[in-house]
Design brief:
Cytochrome Bc1 Complex, Chain D, domain 2; about 140 residues; 6 helices; about 50% helix
Length: about 140
């Protein structure tokens, strides 16, 4: 099993990239025009990274998305995305995928901004093309 770990890593990285790509594409396919979305979208509050780290754990995000937002094919997509805050908030409030909606009664916009700020500090995945053993 140990000699197959590079293949497992490669498959995981490729799958994670596909999940993020699909997640970003789904977020962009909202039928409302962009101007209408931006007019209604709340301004992105500045987030508290440490508060976001605590909320990420206490609100259960890690249970599906992993401790460092790496995601899993069986539980939830990787959260390390270029999705802007408003898209992140929209996905959280009205999920496209199989995820429970987190209404403002559960997580306020400020708490979501804190979680978003925490996720933005996490290291991005390594490009599989830079891993020599996979060449």
């Amino acid at each position: 099993m140990m000699k197959h770990w590079p293949l497992v890593v490669f498959v995981g990285v490729v799958f994670a990239g596909l999940v993020v790509s699909a997640q970003d594409r789904a977020a962009r396919q909202d039928p409302k025009p962009a101007a209408a979305q931006d007019a209604k979208a709340p301004a992105a509050p500045s987030g508290n990274v440490e508060g976001g780290r605590k909320l990420y754990k206490s609100s259960g995000c890690f249970e599906c998305h992993g401790t460092v937002a790496q995601g899993s094919p069986r539980t939830g997509p990787m959260l390390l995305t270029q999705l802007p805050f408003n898209g992140f908030l929209r996905q959280l409030r009205r999920p496209v995928a199989e995820m429970p909606p987190y209404q403002e009664k559960v997580l306020t916009d400020q708490q979501v901004a804190d979680i978003y700020a925490f996720i933005q500090t996490l290291p991005k995945p390594v490009d599989y093309k830079t891993i020599k053993i996979l060449q």
